[in-house]
Every structure is written in C-alpha cells, then in structure tokens.
Design a protein that fits this description.
It contains two helices and six strands, in the order E-E-E-E-H-E-E-H. By secondary structure, it is of the alpha+beta class. The longest helix is centred in the last third of the chain and has 21 residues. The mean pLDDT is 80.
Length: 136
C-alpha cells in the first residue's frame, strides 16, 4: 500500500504534498502522513496511567484496596437507599478526601462500585462548592 499524501498550502499559497514522517513510537520505522502514530501504535484514550498523580504507589494502593474490598462498601448513598450495595468494587475511594484533611493510607480507603463512587464524589463536590461560596 502506497503512503497517503495530504496536500497543504505553503506561504505562497501553492498546494504541495505533505511528506511522510516516522511513527512517534520509539522502536517503529513506519511512515505516517498527517498523524503521529502508525495504526499499530495508535494510543487509545486513557489506556495508559500517565495522568498527573497516578503513580505506581497509587496503582498499588488501588490493587490492595480492591483486593481487601471486593464488594462495594457503600454505606447507603441515595442510589442504594440505605440498603447498601452488592456490586463488585471497581473504584478506590478516600473515605475522607485529602482536600478535607483525609490521609492517604489504607485505613482511609474503601472500594466502591463506579455508580456509588460517582454519587459520593458529586456530593463531596457540591459540599465543597457550598462551603466556598458561603465564605464570600
């Protein structure tokens, strides 16, 4: 398959073909045009854990918490209506969030299912916004 050439305009307004460049993956020699990676090395959204603050230690803590709490430890959010939740834990959650003075050790972590975690995080965010605007 021949490389695909894209056209672009230079400063004089002339249409010129864009030259293929090397794939950005360190060990790949494939040539691409108009993209950064070849199809074999195209990254997927959130496939890597290089987000800010997501380190090897946080991955290890998450693995420990989810092994300790295989079932959601929801203590009766609006979604569960005080009956608790029987779904598998998928998210590592701070019981008292760090911004509110919680510590980052395993006793302050719990395993929650994703829907319960969203409800808890949204409630904490709303509480923080109310406190922020109350102090104005």
């Amino acid at each position: 398959m021949s490389p695909r050439w894209y056209l672009h305009r230079d400063r004089g307004g002339q249409t010129m073909p864009r030259a293929p460049k090397k794939c950005a993956h360190p060990s790949c020699e494939a040539r691409v045009v108009g993209k950064t990676y070849c199809p074999d090395h195209q990254p997927t959204a959130w496939a890597t854990s290089t987000r800010t603050g997501f380190t090897r230690a946080t991955r290890r803590m998450r693995d420990l918490v989810l092994a300790r709490d295989p079932i959601c430890r929801c203590s009766g959010c609006r979604r569960c209506s005080m009956n608790g939740c029987a779904r598998p834990s998928t998210d590592d959650d701070h019981i008292v969030n760090v911004a509110s003075g919680g510590v980052d050790d395993i006793e302050n972590h719990q395993g929650l299912c994703h829907p319960c975690h969203l409800v808890k995080v949204q409630h904490e965010a709303a509480t923080a916004r109310r406190a922020k605007y109350a102090n104005r």
